[in-house]
Design a protein that fits this description.
Elements (H helix, E strand, L loop, with lengths): L1 E9 L4 E9 L4 H5 L11 E5 L8 H5 L2 H5 L5 E5 L15 H16 L9 E6 L1 H12 L6 E5 L5 H10 L4 H6 L2 H4 L6 H11 L5 E7 L5 H14 L3 E6 L5 H14 L7
Parallel strand pairs: 3-4, 3-5, 5-6, 6-7, 7-8
Antiparallel strand pairs: 1-2, 2-4
Helix pairs in contact: 5-9, 9-10
Length: about 260
C-alpha cells in the first residue's frame, strides 16, 4: 500500500491544508504496463479525527494501516482543526472544505470512486459527529457511516457550556439557541432524512459504557430508532480511549458494505 501526505491550498479555508491518504497496492499490470485511462477506481473511507487531534492521529494511535492491508479500499484522513466539522461562526469554513473540497481534491489526485456505493465515512468523538453529519446531510453520496464514541448531541454540550460560562462551541456554532434544530444538529438531520424520503445510509454506532458521552450516544440511538432509522449499535466496556477505537475501527472495516479483499 501507499501512504501519502497530500498538501493543497484550500480555496475554501484560504490557507494550506493537509490530508493523509492510504491507497491499496495496485495490480501488477498497473505497475508494469502503460498508463491505463480506465484504471480501477477505489472505494473510499473518509476517516475523521477528534477535537484534540489532526490528520495524522489515526496512523499514530491505531493500526489502521495493518487493518486495511489487503482490502480494496482507500482511506482519506483530512485535517479539520477544532472545527466540529462546521463552517465556524468565528473561524474557517471547515464543513464546506471537508464535505465539498476534500473529496474533489482527493479524486483529482488519486483514483477514487465517486459512486455512492463506494463511499463511506467514519470518525471518533468529534469525528463521529462529523461522520454522521456528512452521511445524514448527503445521503446520496455516502452508503455508510460509523461513529465511535461520537459527540452526537452537540446541542446538549452547547447548553452545558453556556451554563458554565464557557465559549468554544459558541464561537463554532453561534450558541446553544442557534444549534438545536439546525443543520448542525444530528437529531434534526435524522428527522429530515426520514421526512425527505432520501436513501438511508447504513449507520454503525459504538460507545464505551464508561465514556462520558455514553448518555448522549444512547439518546441519539433511541431518537434514530423512534424515527425508523436503523442503527447497527454496539457498546462495551471502556472509556474515551484509543485502545477501544483501534479495536472498533477494525470492526467497522469488516462491517462496511461491499468492502472485501480483491
Amino acid at each position: 500500500m501507499a501512504l501519502i501526505d497530500c498538501h493543497f491550498f484550500s480555496q475554501v479555508l484560504g490557507m494550506m491544508s493537509t490530508m493523509t491518504v492510504i491507497l491499496p497496492d495496485p495490480e501488477p499490470a498497473a505497475i508494469d504496463g502503460p498508463p491505463n485511462p480506465r484504471r480501477r477506481l477505489y472505494p473510499t473511507l473518509y476517516l475523521l479525527h477528534g477535537l484534540s487531534d489532526d490528520h495524522t492521529v489515526w496512523q499514530r494511535r491505531t493500526a489502521i494501516e495493518r487493518h486495511v492491508a489487503g482490502l480494496n479500499l482507500a482511506v482519506v484522513m483530512p485535517a479539520a482543526g477544532r472545527s466540529f466539522y462546521a463552517d465556524m461562526v468565528s473561524g474557517p469554513r471547515y464543513w464546506t472544505c471537508i464535505s465539498e473540497e476534500v473529496p474533489a481534491v482527493a479524486r483529482h489526485f488519486f483514483p477514487l470512486s465517486a459512486a455512492r456505493q463506494d463511499n463511506f465515512v467514519a470518525g471518533l468523538s468529534m469525528g463521529g459527529y462529523g461522520a454522521f453529519k456528512l452521511a445524514l446531510t448527503h445521503p446520496h453520496r455516502y452508503a455508510a457511516a460509523a461513529s465511535l464514541s461520537g459527540t452526537l448531541d452537540v446541542a446538549r454540550l452547547a447548553r452545558d457550556e453556556q451554563a458554565a460560562g464557557q465559549g468554544e462551541l459558541r464561537h463554532i456554532f453561534g450558541g446553544a439557541d442557534a444549534l438545536a434544530g439546525s443543520p448542525n444538529d444530528l437529531f434534526f438531520l435524522a428527522h429530515q432524512l426520514v421526512r425527505q424520503g432520501a436513501p438511508r445510509p447504513e449507520l454503525y454506532q459504538w460507545c464505551g459504557t464508561g465514556d462520558f458521552l455514553y448518555a448522549d450516544n444512547a439518546r441519539f440511538r433511541r431518537h434514530a430508532e423512534a424515527l425508523g432509522v436503523t442503527v447497527q449499535y454496539k457498546e462495551g466496556p471502556g472509556g474515551h480511549e484509543w485502545s477501544c477505537w483501534d479495536a472498533q475501527i477494525e470492526q467497522v472495516l469488516a462491517w462496511l458494505p461491499g468492502v472485501g479483499r480483491p
